[in-house]
Design goal:
There is one protein chain. With about 90 residues, the chain is mainly alpha-helical. It has a domain of about 55 residues. About 50% of the residues lie in helices and about 0% in strands. The longest helix has 16 residues.
Length: about 90
């Protein structure tokens, strides 16, 4: 197959590659060694095995939640603490 850097891989092909790597692991070959043989970056395989949840990982989309570290004046920070997290 050759190097796949910079290419989008179809879901079926990813599944087949992951199956080959899992089968090799059952036979005692490490995932890193399998990746080297297949000329695939191990990091790419890890990303395929553990895909991020949405565009920004487990944190969701931008703007869904009020950020914890906002740039507020100390007076405003104290008000938020005293009054709760009301807008």
């Amino acid at each position: 197959m050759g190097p796949i850097a910079g290419q989008c891989i179809q879901a079926q092909t990813k599944l087949e590659i992951l199956t080959v790597i899992a089968t090799a692991q059952q036979q005692g070959v490490s995932a890193r060694r399998s990746c080297a043989i297949l000329v695939i970056a191990h990091r790419r395989i890890v990303r395929w095995q553990h895909p991020m949840q949405g565009r920004f990982g487990p944190w969701g989309q931008v703007g869904q939640v009020q950020p914890v570290a906002r740039l507020l004046s100390p007076r405003k920070q104290n008000e938020r603490v005293l009054l709760g997290n009301r807008n």
